[in-house]
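Suppose you are handed only these lines of text.
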Amino acid sequence: MCGIVGIVGTRPVAPLIVDALKRLEYRGYDSAGVATLENGALDRRRAEGKLVNLQERLEAEPLSGQIGIGHTRWATHGAPVEINAHPHFSSNVAVVHNGIIENFRELRGELQADGFVFSSQTDTEVIAHLVEKGLRDGLEPVEAAHAAIKRLRGAFALAVMFGADDNLIVAARNGPPLAVGHGEGEMYLGSDAVALAPFTNRITYLEDGDWAIVKRDSMQIFSLDGSAIERIQQRSVGSALMVDKGNHRHFMIKEIYEQPEVIGHTLAHYVDFNEQKVALRQESTVDFAKLDRLNITACGTAYLAGLVGKYWFERHARLPVDIDIASEFRYREMPMSADGMSLFISQSGETADTLAGLKYCEAQGQHLAAIVNVQESTIARSCKSVFPTLAGPEIGVASTKAFTCQLSVLAALAVAAGVQRGHIDSERERELVEQLSEAPRYTNDVLKLEGEIATMAHGLANKPNVIYLGRDTNFPLALEGALKLKELSYIHAEGYAAGELKHGPIALIDEEMPIVTIAPHDNIFEKTVSNMQEVAARGGKIILITDERGAEEAGMDDIKTIVMPKMPEIITPIVYALPIQMLAYHTAVQMGTDVDQPRNLAKSVTVE
Ligand code: M6R
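From them, the structure of the protein bound to 5-amino-5-deoxy-1-O-phosphono-D-mannitol can be written out as follows.
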């Protein structure tokens, strides 16, 4: 993952680079570093851990210089320690890199044979030495950088700075995103436009295979073979304002509380509540009637939203859905239907595995569509039909409001598909639209359960294992509950389809095992209760999330119950997401983990 920044400026750049890195810290926070150039000398400051450590280092030992590069790291090759922090140097060359250089072993061997000494365990350091080797062989800086880029295999967004030239950064992209910002007499580079928002909103995105010469007053883009390329300059809508936590202790709980509003906004984008009809906008229109198959690809929480979507598309629109985890999909060489549509779901729009799946589907001639939160992202820019989630910036690494907005879009699309395919008549459409319109109100009501849920979290905190159960659309929610708990509290948790428990996992149940069961009172409630009883008979400690009728009919003593309002079936996954988010949040708070930036994670996963 990692975030990179570069500035060819007219004022001291180190503080500006740190400001931009703050906006990129969601991409990784294992270490950070800045390098600048002054009077022909490269200098750098690096620090292990979060950006705040680098800021302290810079306060103690400031860096001057009007050209510089910076990096915030999510470790791939080499431990998250200072020697592996970027920028990496080789004599007169400094490099920052996001991605993975797949042939770094081969290159390192070759460079070591030429006498280069490596001071880190990273793959990135080979880039610095390769460029330096070119300089020693008599190449000009730009030629040396171009020659080095041509040797790299893998995924990279990188910036190279040279001791010999204080008006030059060479940038390159193959995979992870890279934006060039155009200022007044200054030029900028960043992993996204938001990082550059305080400096400029005039942005040119590099495409895969592009490399660029960036100077104070010009920028030229080339393809790998050296021919010049034109890329359009666009106005970014990224805000320069840093999103803050308001009165909340963490971004995550703030984002949980934003859900009634952002779900409402998102639904209103797809549904005409006055006319009580689904109303897809022109730019996102898809002819669902012509589709014979829908293929959904995503990762993590976005994948679990897609799994709920599968139930909805099949149930309401009789549209068969294949759904894959992107990292598996891309290698399974799935034959695809000529009349199929491929739908990618992503908050960031930059997830490398999802993007790789997209490229596969593009090559198969599929209609490409995306449900995406970041509208200027690579996934959004690569798809013909884009369905935005209007969640606003999601800062907490654990996805919350993006998930419920993805569900909101999927629900609206499933209804639209049902109408277009003739499985939903206008009366049923009105009914479903009215039900969807209730989602903001119910989510708001459920927020009032926070105190009670915080108390229940005592039953999970410090437990070694937790199991989540659900059936139907609550099965993906069980998986999501387990994922949220794992990533926030580091407790081992698994989600199971309630009916699957008896086929093996029930062997795990003993008096120590908490079981969170998600079971609104619906047509399969009794089945889930039977599964819960099997657990109770073996001493498992049950937390049941249900409605009033479910609580009454569960008929079990010695269980804890979170009582939800009674609501229509189509919005239950959206609304029931909140108690599982709050349960994971409060468990993590009680255990004292870093809720917004859990260990080993990053918000945007731009490596395979
Ligand atoms: O940006 P994306 O939605 O593509 O990200 C996908 C996953 O990396 C993401 O949902 C991840 O699983 C979250 N940390 C879950 O909370």
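What can we learn from it? The chain has three domains: 3-240, 246-437, 447-593. DSSP finds 20 helices and 27 strands in the chain.
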